[in-house]
Amino acid sequence: MRQFTSAFGAALIGACALTTAGMAEDAPVKLRLSHNLPTNNALHYGVLEPWAKSIGEASNGSIGVDIFPAQQLGPAKDHYNMARDGIVDIAFYLVGIEPGRFPIVSAAEVPFLVSANDRGSRALYEWYQPYAATEMPDVKVCAMFYDGGGTIHAKKKIERPADLAGLKIRSPNVMAAELYRLGGASPIQMSANDAAEAVERGVVDAISFPWKLVQALGADRVLNYHMDTTLYSLATAILINKSSYERLSDAQKAVIDSHCNADWSQKLPVAWTEYEYEGRGVLLEKAGHDVYAISDEQLQEWKELAKGVQAKWAADVAAKGVDGEKTFGELKALLEKYDAAY
Fold this sequence. Notes:
GO biological process, one term: transmembrane transport
Oligomer: single chain
Largest sheet: 6 strands, mixed
Number of strands: 11
Protein name: TRAP dicarboxylate transporter subunit DctP
Strand content: 15-25%
Pfam family, one: DctP
Signal peptide: 1-24
Strand order of the largest sheet: 7-6-8-5-9-11
Keywords: Signal
């Protein structure tokens, strides 16, 4: 995992120096963090555990973060409400898991948008900050980052949009679903676990998954063709209950604030992205599996299709009084600034 930037490290050291005296007197607090994946997934051990450990160390042990994985405290789709209502103090949330609820941030999930999940996550966090106060006003949006990215795994080779015609395909979010719909497929949005079972039962012909997840859930037993490109990346967020934050001392708030920023947003997805990409190497060597590249011409066809997804998103948010062209342009500009645009 990458090291902190020097600026971030200096800021953290300074914050710790200023608050050490206060920490010694602060009453210990325990914060409950909930997420949806198992402990053997890098989101747990490579992302959230190191983040929680750093908070504990920076607070001289006065803040403890207890992590509850695998939807122990509630299903993935409920995690925004769980953070809002104080069922948990901190929630990991898939921002596109509730179709239509947070339309502005959905722009971050337009296919073929992000090329580097670490730098792209910095852009995502900075872009969304002005909008978070109105679109997610019930929580403190602490950090935002992209997942490991996903592609199409199918029972047949899918190289261009026309190959989608008539297929039933599991979609991870609304934006990918629109892409597949425009290509002539019948997208079905469902959880990862449900999708793996649906593949086994023949309910769907293809799924959108990251590389490692398709194997972890056993879907590779049926799906032998894997497009070797990143179609999409899911946007995620760490959300904090406002009351949980307000009850902290000033010194403890400073520690939390030092872990809620663009630097952490860039750092957090690195281990997760690397973990998922390891799965690509496994499938490359696995008998009976075809991990195939698509041509530049075919890629351009997919990108043209994605323009239709962006256009629909812009029309949808325009109906809610949002200037879609301006808003999406801001995100693109930041992705280009950080060399993270597709």
